[in-house]
Amino acid sequence: MTSKGAVAGRPGIVASALAVVGMLTLVLVLPQVGMGQAADERVVYMSLIEPKGGVTVDKEPFPGTQMPKGGGYVLNPPNPQGRWEVSVYQFSPATVVVRQGERVTLEMVGINGAKHSVHIDKYVPNHAVVKRGEIGRVKFTADTPGIYKIHCEEHQPSMEGTLVVLPR
Fold first, then answer.
1. Which residues in 109-124 are b (16+ Cβ under 10 Å) and which e?
2. HEC sequence for 11-29
3. Separate counts of helices (H) and strands (E) for the chain
4. Contacts for 57 with CB less than 8 Å, ≥ 6 apart
5. pLDDT in tens, 102-160
6. Does the model's pTM come out above 0.70?
7. To 10 degrees, the CA torsion angle through 128, 117, 144, 39?
């Protein structure tokens, strides 16, 4: 018996599959609205993080690579015990997608890094300061479709993200 015959013999499976597809379509098409949040509002939660990795020189030799200037990448040479570390600063998530006309709130929590001066081309031209252990909120209306750079002044070039404003 083919799989087509097996499914055809079980109408409940087909109905269940169609129901699941229908629910997924609704979830993907409808705006993501939180509790107490209007359909034309979007709250995005971002973490300002610093993933790290380290090892001792007996396991891996220190690479001695020249890192780009700007504070976004950190390569610490071996300490007296031979341990060296590498880290990079990032936004998580790095891409934020909203719709044209939405009132957007970016709620950013500083996890690592004493201070982040966050800029968003067009929408936050000066900067919003977010410190470790604090929450910084930036509010704007996404009025112009396009792709905009999000970046941290202190941790360039790695701490960059993208704001995507989809047209209506």
1. ebebbeebebbbeebb
2. HHHHHHHHHHHHHHHHHHH
3. 2, 12
4. 78, 82, 83, 84
5. 999 999 999 999 999 999 999 988 889 999 999 999 999 999 999 999 999 999 999 99
6. yes
7. -50
